Amino acid sequence: MHKAHHLDALAGVDHGFCSIDDPLLPQDVFICKQVHSASVIEWEAGQVANTVEADGVFTRSRQPIAVITADCLPILIAGGDRVAAIHGGWKGLQRGIIGNAVQLFIDKGIAAEQLRVAIGPSIKPCCYEVSATFIAELQTDQGHMWQHGQAPWSVEQPAPLQPPFITPPHARQTGSAWFDLSGYGLLLLHAAGVKREYIEVSDVCTYCTSPTFASYRRRTHHPEEPKTLIYSWIARTN
To answer: Is residue 72 one of the residues assigned to a domain?
Structure first.
């Protein structure tokens, strides 16, 4: 079970980033039927897990909520008397899921500046190769966000943030780039008004840091690996 330090320090909030078989994973955790959308729902009693199409859950109840990932960003948010869990794949991020989630807090009178955010283990730029077409389309759509700063990708493959247990993949495409999904998420959180000092980002790469982490991309390169998932959950405790 992995935890973020500043969420762990919050009174009345519990959370974790773990595997499906972790004994500390709440048994009644609620997840959506994730579809790489920008939709964030507010949890309601009676909803059946894995049936409501959305990629984020928001609540003020004590119901544990979660997202499942296998390379994408698991984003946990706490503020005031509310918590949220967000599945941040590049499609959902580009479509605005972070802004939508932050707006739900704002609509309840909780300012973006008050939010505490944890981004859990995800694929890092050392292992996330994307096509030239992907970069061109993202630049056209959202390049204004980094016109005065560093774009969330590099042409050269960066080194892993932690000593790799698994060798990072080699380039498989001509003219490709290495995408920083966490960095992209940080840009979007900043644009939504969240303070950088209140965002904690795990430096664990789901591809190369450890075989125990779920990585969809690693499994496509090594199909003999068993399928697994990371559950990122959060709950109010009072």
So the answer is: yes
Q: Identify the CA nearest to 78 among candidates 19, 6, 25.
A: 6
Beta strands in the chain, from DSSP E residues, in sequence order: 13-19, 40-42, 56-59, 65-69, 73-79, 82-88, 116-119, 129-130, 153-154, 177-179, 199-201, 230-236
Place of tokens 């109010």: 236
The pLDDT tens digits for 83-105 are 999 999 999 999 999 999 999 99
Query: Total structural domains in the chain?
Result: 1
With tokens 């048994």, the residue in question is 27
What CATH number does the domain containing 93 carry?
3.60.140.10
Handedness of CA 208, 211, 213, 216 (dihedral sign): positive
Catalogue the E-assigned strands of 164-226.
177-179, 199-201
75 in a structural domain: yes
Question: Is 184 within 8 Å of 171 (Cβ atoms)?
Answer: no
Which residue segment(s) compose the domain that 31 sits in?
A: 5-123+181-236
Judged on CB neighbours under 10 Å (0-12, 13-18, 19+), 28 is exposed
The model's pTM is: 0.96
Neighbours of 152 (CB within 10 A): 24
Whether 228 maps to a domain, the answer reads: yes
Angstrom distance (rounded) from CA 105 to CA 15 = 18
pLDDT tens string 147-190 = 989 999 999 999 999 999 999 999 999 999 999 999 999 999 99
